[in-house]
């Protein structure tokens, strides 16, 4: 038996498994015992450690260390995988039976996990562990005598360790008879039938260890202590051969938990009672509901009548909506007429300019013709006397005076310019006619949008030419299925707004860009004018919203433009920076997705 340990003999070795540090009991080069933490660290079982000498397992350093006095050092321990595990070792000699053995406490310093108090004796270390455990814990030896009774047990039972250490009647502390502790029962070849009779249905096997049991125990009132419920768990202690040499039991006060369970049980019973009452109330409610159903059937009849009235009102709403659509079409046409009226002065100016120089040229032409007639008259008068030198001199002087050669050349130029002016007037009138064409009920057509842009530019030329230069960046566009006159109105609104956004004291630029993808075309109109704030941008498509002075704008141009683009299943986007300019981008599908479109009349115009 190890000197200085408790009288449990081999039980003391088994208790070493409770220590968190490795412990070796060494006799010369023989390892008598290695606790579980040490075996776990070096990954070798006690049987494997006992099969070899300490010299074979740890090396010469361990042999040299065991021959010295009590001191500490760090020693390597070769691992099966070829690495070393380092231990801080404290070695103390101790008498065991008829010889002296070495007890080595080994702290694994490889991972810096040091255990305090490694140099204390085994008994003191085990006592400190059990004493510091917050759960009530006591140990019985093979004679059922108490060897350890920690502080938590003293608090639970109000019995000090001094009164119980060495006693075999710890059952009295829990109000049980002698030998009736769960620890007493697990030390015998367990009689489960007897256990279950003792602890009724409050007993079960513990999964923590072989032969361990757990139970709930009602401890009756004793001295000044009230009755309590305890959760107890007992585990047998075994020596190296597997023989039971003692038992450990833990005590946990579960009185509060039991009280909570009782409250829960009472609450469940109250809930069941409540369910019964609710069921009765539901039956009563069902009877009332049947009465209510009868009443609701009467109400449903009234609702059916109201439904018929609502249907009639809905029909009236559809008729009103149709009238609203017609009104909207009239509004679009009125806006177009208002726009044309706004441009009337500019168109008149555009027509008057070419007509003016046509009239001027024809006036000059009339003078030239008069001079030519005089010359011809002179030739006629001089014809009988053409042989006279003085007459020939007079005729030559007259021809030189009117510069007959220049007159002939300038006459041709005047005729050409007059023709160009007249053709320009015809073109402007035709563009205005195309632009103002009423197409509210027209068929969808396959149209060249760039031609429509050029036509619209010609119509609004008077609004732009004094303020900005037009920059064309046209891409290749396919023909698009659309209502061309309505899109021309969109282009006109965007171009006129771009011109109005440019300050009067600065000549700006208006850039028109076009492009196409496989399924869409886009038209972007940009200006370098005053731009818009985010607040204004958020409202520009609202009907009747305008930033122009009263009388200068209706506030419907962009709203109607938005509606026209939506009608074409496209989208219109705006990007603007105050002080830098604005860009409107119109994106349109090449083919309209609406299957209701009547394109039968225009199939021949569809591009191949």
Explain what the structure shows.
- It catalyses: ATP + protein L-histidine = ADP + protein N-phospho-L-histidine.
- The protein starts with 9 loop residues before the first helix and ends in a 19-residue tail after the last strand.
- The N terminus and C terminus are likely disordered.
- It folds into 4 domains: 119 residues, 2-Layer Sandwich (Beta-Lactamase); 120 residues, PAS domain (Beta-Lactamase), CATH 3.30.450; 157 residues, Helix Hairpins, CATH 1.10.287; 169 residues, Heat Shock Protein 90 (2-Layer Sandwich).
- It has 608 residues and is of the alpha+beta class.
- The chain is elongated, with a radius of gyration of 58 Å.
- α13 crosses α14, α14 crosses α16 and α16 runs antiparallel to α18.
Radius of gyration (Å)? 58 Å
Query: What is the CATH topology of the largest domain?
Result: Heat Shock Protein 90
Count of beta strands: 18
In this structure, how is the largest beta sheet organized?
Answer: 6 strands, antiparallel
The appropriate CATH architecture of the largest domain is 2-Layer Sandwich
Mean pLDDT, to the nearest integer, reads: 78
Low-confidence stretches: 1-8, 113-122, 598-608
The strands making up the biggest β-sheet line up spatially as 7-6-11-10-9-8
Helix content: 40-55%
Distance between the termini: 111 Å
Write down the CATH class of the largest domain. Alpha Beta
Query: Strand share of the residues?
Result: 15-25%
Structural class: alpha+beta
What is the count of structural domains? 4
- What is the number of helical segments per DSSP (H or I, 4+ residues)? 18
Q: How would the global form be characterised? A: elongated
Identify the CATH homologous superfamily of the largest domain: Histidine kinase-like ATPase, C-terminal domain
GO molecular function: ATP binding
Organism: Uliginosibacterium flavum
Protein name: histidine kinase
InterPro entries: HATPase_C_sf (IPR036890), HATPase_dom (IPR003594), His_kinase_dom (IPR005467), HisK_dim/P_dom (IPR003661), PAS (IPR000014), PAS-assoc_C (IPR000700), PAS-like_dom_sf (IPR035965), PAS_4 (IPR013656)
